[in-house]
Design brief:
homodimer; alpha/beta; Rossmann fold; 6-phosphogluconate dehydrogenase C-terminal fold; 2 domains; five-stranded mixed sheet; two-stranded parallel sheet
């Protein structure tokens, strides 16, 4: 459900792994393209009992802000047992809503593929989007039904080239706050600071001097504005918790420059080692190979 | 003076522009390599009246933490008029020290080439290091002597492939605080946050999920620890001024998510446009071509 970059790429990779794929998206032209490029076997322009008739596993790959309302609809269209997962980049709100609102016959397991590009839409879909990327699954509890569903989802995700990682939705949201949403927030903040000064007392000097370091630190802030808004707002409670800690952390660095430079140098050494160990020379996360 | 990455690359590029280049560095082996690769015409292992005899323009390309003590020595070795510049990445402390301590016959113009790599040392020197990069010059005042010296330095810098940018030292330090030192501080802070959580309650989940966005945001923090310490500590007063403003800026983004999402979406649009306009598709600063 949803044939954008994520949904389209998932369809392409599952088709090539010989799964039968049904695509559901409002846009008729997207369905035609998807049929033409052999990304799907069959397409529907809306969610219906007919569309879900032969579906064992349904992935919701619509925009983050739309996932909850899509989950709401699903219950009314299925009578048989079905596994439903999603690809939203925060999991708590979605999982808690699914837990409360879906009927017994729908087994919901939250999901988050850690893949994507600045591009969006089916046109940019690629069979290799998930290759060697983590795909988090957040089961609602430890029931046998959920465990079986996770096993099946793992199999499908591995077929798509991804590396499954199992987590609770709370832990997932804490982790992505640190490695995805806080960095985005900070990137947006750096843009604001330079942009505002740029407009006044130090004229264009900031902008002229901005080179590759600044470019890399502001790349994610300069991404799709709607997506940036959805990401920040989806994890607002975790962000509100960790932002003061982050500000303390950086203030502490400045304090140590004068008060205890040796401790700070030691910390910078550890940071450097940690960051360099985390990525191999091709920029790939080294822990994902374990 | 100093034949590391910056000094060595400057020597190489000036030699190829047919300047006569004298290299001064403690390490005899570096002088031998520099002579062998035709980076210098002549080399000295220490600063002396003899070494400076034929020198019209002296660039101090020693580590940031050493520049002030090198400026101190220069005065005692020169009797004739000489232009002295440096390549330190913050300018206020250096320029104020030079103004107070150098004799009349030394014309000091602070400098900062906005170029470099993670690598250091003469071995990594390259003739093209400065090509199309900004090189800031910070004259001490508007005197004719300084204006002539700036004109000559501009000519030399252009020969090395760089684009000269003239600024006061105060403005330079305000600008680099925003586009270089604040981003570095923030990058170090992001590493600390993820690294600390990594060690406790969310186990390795943060580290496993860290992909290209996090990698880019922590790349500069993971750089050379001693250089990172020198950069942060060299511009501590500007950083102390702007850090609270930065923390307010990011707190304000979180506040607007709930209170005024439309204003925030508009700001994210403007940020995205600003950031994308600042760099061309090859990642080059577009303002530098003007």
């Amino acid at each position: 459900m949803g044939l954008g970059l994520i949904g389209g790429s998932l369809a392409l990779s599952l088709k090539s792994a010989e799964y039968k794929v049904i695509g559901i998206t409002r846009n008729k032209e997207t369905i035609d393209s998807a049929l033409k490029t052999n990304a799907i076997d069959k397409g529907f322009t809306e969610l219906s009992s007919e569309a879900l008739l032969d579906v064992d596993v349904l992935f919701i790959a619509t925009p983050l802000s739309q996932i909850i309302s899509d989950i709401k609809k699903i219950g009314s269209f299925v009578n048989k047992e079905i596994i439903v997962s999603d690809v939203g980049s925060t999991k708590s709100d979605i999982c808690i809503f699914a837990k409360k609102n879906l009927p017994q016959n729908v087994i919901f397991i939250g999901g988050h593929p850690m893949a994507g590009t600045e591009k969006s839409g089916f046109t940019f879909s690629t069979q290799n989007l998930f290759k060697d990327h983590a795909w988090v699954l957040t089961p609602l509890d430890e029931s046998t039904k959920n465990r079986n569903a996770v096993a099946l989802l793992k199999k499908i995700i591995i077929s798509a080239g991804a590396i499954p990682v199992i987590s609770s939705y709370e832990r997932h949201d804490q982790a992505v706050a640190l490695i995805s949403h806080l960095p985005l927030l900070v990137s947006l903040g750096l843009c604001q600071m330079a942009r505002k000064r740029d407009q006044n007392e130090i004229a264009n000097l900031t902008a002229i001097l901005a080179s590759s370091g600044f470019r890399d630190m502001t790349r994610i802030g300069g991404g799709n504005p709607q997506l940036n808004f959805d990401l920040i707002s989806s994890n607002i409670s975790q962000l509100s918790l960790i932002l003061p800690k982050f500000c303390n952390e950086v203030e502490n660095i400045l304090k140590l420059v004068k008060e205890n430079p040796e401790t700070l140098k030691k910390a910078f050494n550890e940071i450097s080692k940690w960051q360099n160990d985390l990525y191999d020379k091709n920029g790939k996360n080294t822990l994902l190979n374990i």
